[in-house]
Amino acid sequence: MSQPGEQMNPLMPHASELVFGMLTVAHTLLLLVVVLQVLRGRLRVPHGLVGVLTLLLVPVVGPLLVLTWQGRVDRHRARAGQAASSSGVLP
User: Fold this and answer.
1) CB 32, CB 63: distance < 8 Å
2) Residue 41: left if φ>0, alpha if ψ -120 to 50, beta else—which one?
3) In a 3-state reduction of DSSP, which class is residue 35?
4) What pLDDT is recorded for position 2?
5) Residues 11-60 pLDDT 10s
6) CA dist 59 to 8, 44, 79, Å?
7) Does the pLDDT at position 9 exceed 80?
8) For burial by CB atoms within 10 Å, which of 14, 40, 47, 67 has the most?
9) Looking at residue 40, what is its pLDDT?
């Protein structure tokens, strides 16, 4: 126990604990958004097992990659479709 007159250390988390906690919350929320989008059929997880592992194990970046993946695939398909239609070849 502490002696009378001795000051106690404040119970405040270290900066690394705060950053880790915020990253955990952000990752959990993004993971929830991705799961809801997948269940609604608006989103697909890219590359099968590798995509699922990236989604679950790479904090914050994994879910962001999955969220932006479908848009990139759609844009690529649209460009490929425009190039094929302008050259007279149908996909």
Assistant:
1) no
2) left
3) helix
4) 57
5) 888 899 999 999 999 999 999 999 899 899 888 877 788 888 888 888 89
6) 35, 19, 31
7) no
8) 67
9) 93
Instruction: Please state the rounded mean pLDDT for residues 64-73.
Output: 84
In DSSP notation, 46-88 reads TTHHHHHHHHHHSTTHHHHHHHHHHHHHHHHHHHHHHHHHHHT
Lookup: tokens for 60: 């914050």
H or E segment and range at residue 19:
helix 15-40
Question: 86: which 2 tokens?
Answer: 């302008």
> If you count them, how many residues does the chain have?
91
> What is the residue type of 71?
G
User: Which of 65, 61, 33, 60 lies closest to 47 in space, CA to CA?
Assistant: 65
- Give the span between the Cα atoms of 29 and 59, in whole angstroms: 11
